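We modelled the chain as a single entity of 113 amino acids. Its sequence is:
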Amino acid sequence: MKMVIAIIQPSKLDDVKDELYKADINLMTVSEVLGHGRQKGVTEIYRGAREMGNLLRKVRIEIAVNDNFVEPAVRAIIKGAKTGETGDGKIFIMPLENTIRIRTEERGAIAIG
């Protein structure tokens, strides 16, 4: 079991969700987050003065998957989120020690869905 976490542009959320659905991945958690990568935010001119915005709006998608769904999830996220421009985002894959479905108390791979 793995936890796949993607940080993407907000405008690409619908595209990523569509690609995940096509890959038969339907369970996810989505959060609005703030952050920046190499671009270190954006520079704007406000009333003639340069201002550096430190944090940009991003979307964080968390998906718990069984091992055989890791690569399909990664491919779907890339296909939906990639523009080829700086700031497309990142994908993190981490081991998931256990999962428990509260309603039935099922544990492990079966509890993911």
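As a brief sanity check on the tokenised model: Residues 2-112 form a domain with the Alpha-Beta Plaits fold (CATH 3.30.70.120). Helices lie at 13-22, 70-81, 109-112.
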